[in-house]
Amino acid sequence: MSFYEQDHDDYRETVREYVKRQVSPHYAQWEADKLIDRSVWLPAGENGLIGLDVPEQYGGPDIHDWRFRMVVAEELNMIGAASLTIAFAVQDDLVLPYLLDLGTPEQKERWLPGMASGQLIGAIGMTEPGAGSDLQSIRTTAVRDGDDWVLSGQKTFISNGIHADLVIVVAKTDPAAGARGVSLLVVERGMPGFERGRKLDKLGLHAQDTAELFFTDVRVPAANVLGEVGHGFAYLMERLPRERMSIAAGAYAGARAALAWTCDYVFERKAFGQRIGDFQNTRFELAEIETEIDVTRAYLEQCVLRLNDGTLTTVEASKAKWWATELEGRATTRLLQLFGGYGFMDEYPISRAFRDSRVQTIYGGTTEIMKEIIGRDIAGRYR
After folding, report:
1. Residue 136 confidence (pLDDT) above 90
2. Same fold for the pair 6-120 and 123-230
């Protein structure tokens, strides 16, 4: 039975046309500018590349099949547009699930139409300078004052941070309550005291805007609290599997694209009187990497179907995340070698993919955190 159905194949053609018209002609300039042009978001909304889960009443296609998201990741990565893959993933796989699951009718009416159309860009503020994987150590606080919450603190490494029109901020509303004192507040563009810091310079993903965010006594209306006060940590844990699957799918797609570029190169370029791809060492490298990619795809497809029916566990998503991201790192490193000196040149997409892939094993929970989650689960079976 095929993983993809006719609807997905038809959708792939739509995505390819979008990529051809809206992304490919401009992506090199975005990389040079170190910022994706915001204008690419509206056509993405018009063509259904973002906001897939948004109900029709709010202007979305109301599609709850994550295979369509995987198609987007595959097609964007095939042209080396990892930065845009991440930008759209933040919108659909990080921000939207919180608004859809926890938003009040009024909040949904306010935010979902813009999120589906591309008029509004979302971000989520979890990481702080002193708190990465350890979310319980965040220092951003929100104190109730009448009908508002007064928010103070800072966040860093925030994807979509420069363009974001709304940011779901993780803050402590009761510092003495530990994990039970964390809440989610939506900060909107233009709120006094909300400022963006540097657009951060990074090793890879140059076009993807990553920023520092500062909150100085920002008055956030109580109407902008997502879900119940004090339940924020639980909400985060419940939605991490989708985020990690999103990263895993992007990593798989990146590795698959790198293999395709390399095959095209080694079976065209010659050395010592024969095609590079005809050397046994080259064939062995390609054989190993293609096998690892195919095996990874089989597990990811199983996880995607479980995500669709709501049965994907944190442990399963953690396995997918660490394995696929480490695979992408190994694959791009070994495949770049087959390009020789040209692999070091930015005119070849393998060079950019090599840089872009490095962060995959870090954000969304490091490989070490993923292994700890899995290891604890294993240990728990023997108690």
Report:
1. no
2. no
